[in-house]
């Protein structure tokens, strides 16, 4: 499934490239105002920090929420205290788009993550051109040398990279990249199985000074408490926010 998602994202990027060339998207990326400092926004603090996700649908659950106005949802996330906002831009299974990211950029001034299946430099330039401050690199989807190339490009463009892992070996590969913001996704992206204890098993292996992000599977405040007590500095939440009143839900999460 992860290979299919990545292949689909690349086909869509190729389609966009026929309208906006690599040279042009690079020019647009370099013309942006500097990216926001996501490492500062997500730095460890006395309370857990939340990356709140704009998520309409997913391969594991199908449709989750209609989200006709992603900018309005993102504004309520920012007003509710989210430290960063994740926007799913994958079109086929998540029903997202780069246009969602652009709209959200106009509405909020917290750091924005382009959440997609990134495998090409073109997509990294696109992310910055659309106003992203962070991009996601999924270790399981990328060969190490290529992942390093994408990582280096993103950082040269002033962006922060959230490097996503799902095992101890993948965490080692994230560390080898020099990653400072490292996520453990509880969801196996091939089987969709959730393992909410995986973060806890890996937490001691994070390098000192890195920011620890627990991703996926949050149903309620007890799951936030569970990740926090296991050492998460940041928790990335999608479904639980888009299927509830986000302001009320965020307020309960941010008390932890
Ligand atoms: O959400 C999925 O079903 C999914 C399936 C395959 C690849 C990626 C997938 N989700 C992307 C994410 O990482 C999540 O949207 C994000 O971590 C939030 O998860 P949740 O809070 O469980 O909605």
UniProtKB/TrEMBL annotation:
InterPro entries: Aldolase_TIM, Indole-3-glycerol_P_synth, Indole-3-glycerol_P_synth_dom, Indole-3-GlycerolPSynthase_CS, RibuloseP-bd_barrel. Keywords: Amino-acid biosynthesis, Aromatic amino acid biosynthesis, Decarboxylase, Lyase, Tryptophan biosynthesis. It catalyses: 1-(2-carboxyphenylamino)-1-deoxy-D-ribulose 5-phosphate + H(+) = (1S,2R)-1-C-(indol-3-yl)glycerol 3-phosphate + CO2 + H2O. Pathway: Amino-acid biosynthesis; L-tryptophan biosynthesis; L-tryptophan from chorismate: step 4/5. Residues 13-245 form the Indole-3-glycerol phosphate synthase domain. One of its GO terms (biological process) is L-tryptophan biosynthetic process. Its EC number is 4.1.1.48. GO terms for molecular function: indole-3-glycerol-phosphate synthase activity; phosphoribosylanthranilate isomerase activity. Belongs to the TrpC family. This is Indole-3-glycerol phosphate synthase.
């Amino acid at each position: 499934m992860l290979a299919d998602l990545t292949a689909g994202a690349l086909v869509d990027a190729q389609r966009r490239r026929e309208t906006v060339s690599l040279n042009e998207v690079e020019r647009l990326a370099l013309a942006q105002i500097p990216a926001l400092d996501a490492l500062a926004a997500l730095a460890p603090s006395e309370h857990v920090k939340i990356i709140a996700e704009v998520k309409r649908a997913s391969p594991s659950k199908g449709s989750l929420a209609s989200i006709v106005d992603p900018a309005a949802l993102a504004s309520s996330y920012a007003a509710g205290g989210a430290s960063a906002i994740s926007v799913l831009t994958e079109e086929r299974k998540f029903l997202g788009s780069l246009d969602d990211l652009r709209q959200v950029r106009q509405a909020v001034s917290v750091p924005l993550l382009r959440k997609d299946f990134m495998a090409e430099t073109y997509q990294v330039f696109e992310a910055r051109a659309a106003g992203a401050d962070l991009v996601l690199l999924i270790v399981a989807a990328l060969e190490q040398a290529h992942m390093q190339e994408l990582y280096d490009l993103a950082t040269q463009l002033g962006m922060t990279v959230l490097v996503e892992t799902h095992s101890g070996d993948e965490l080692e590969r994230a560390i080898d990249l020099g990653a400072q913001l490292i996520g453990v996704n509880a969801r196996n992206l091939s089987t969709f199985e959730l393992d909410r204890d995986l973060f806890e098993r890996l937490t001691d292996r994070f390098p000192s000074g890195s920011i620890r992000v627990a991703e996926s599977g949050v149903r309620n405040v007890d799951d936030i408490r569970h990740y926090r007590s296991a050492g998460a500095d940041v928790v990335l939440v999608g479904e639980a926010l888009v299927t509830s009143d986000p302001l009320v839900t965020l307020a309960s999460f941010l008390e932890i």
